[in-house]
Amino acid sequence: MDKQKEEKRNSELKPVLVRTFSAGVHFGYLVSHQDKQVVLTNTRRIWRWVGANTLNEIASKGLDINQSRVSEPAAEIVLTEAIEILTVSPEAEKILLEAKWAQ
Q1: Is residue 1 over pLDDT 60?
Q2: Average pLDDT over residues 19-44
Q3: Where in the sequence is the domain holding 92, given as residue range(s)?
Q4: Is 90 a member of any domain?
Q5: pTM of whole model > 0.85?
Q6: By CB neighbour count within 10 A (0-12 exposed, 13-18 middle, 19+ buried), where does 1 fall?
Q7: 14 vs 2, which has greater pLDDT?
Q8: Would 7 be classed as within a structural domain?
Q9: Which residues contact 33 (CB under 8 A, 6 or more apart)?
Q10: Quick check: is 1 in a domain?
């Protein structure tokens, strides 16, 4: 999918954070959700974060992109043990899209 089509698709999908039972925390765009299974597109794993105490704070305000560790995006992921799904604010979405794997 070219970048323009990907951006259009993402703009039509809700940005979310998903906390799972054993696969960590993921940011991405919600494709589907059924029971504990969640499918995300343009998804990034948040390995470590600084600048927020809770996932609620990350979802509303973002994180420190200079000290946190956020993976490069994957096209799609199926998470089978979702515990929590949080809607991401436009402010936090912008920050999470800019985040990289800090050294």
Answers
A1: no
A2: 97
A3: 13-98
A4: yes
A5: yes
A6: exposed
A7: 14
A8: no
A9: 39, 82, 85
A10: no
